[in-house]
Amino acid sequence: MSKYFTKYVCQSCGYVSPRWIGKCPNCSEWNSFVEEATTPVKVSRKIGVSSKIEPVSFDQIEKEDVPRIKTTLNEFDRVLGGGLVPGSLILLGGDPGIGKSTLMMQMAIALKDQLVLYVTGEESVRQIKLRAERLNVSSAKNILLLAETNLDLILDVIDAGTPDLIIVDSIQTMYRPGLESAPGTVSQVRESAALLLRLAKTRGIPIFVVGHVTKDGMIAGPKVIEHMVDTVLQFEGEAHYAYRILRALKNRFGSTNEIGIFEMHDTGLREVLNPSEIFLSERHYGTSGSTVVASIEGSRPILVEVQALVTPTNYGMPQRTSTGFDYRRLALLLAVLEKRVGLNLGQQDVFVNVAGGIRIDEPAVDLGIATSITSSLRDIPVDSSSVAVGEIGLGGEIRTIGQIEKRVHEAAKLGFKRIIVPQHNLKTFKPNGDIEIIGIDRIEQAIEVLLG
Question: Is the CA virtual torsion 418, 419, 422, 428 positive or negative?
Answer without folding.
Answer: negative
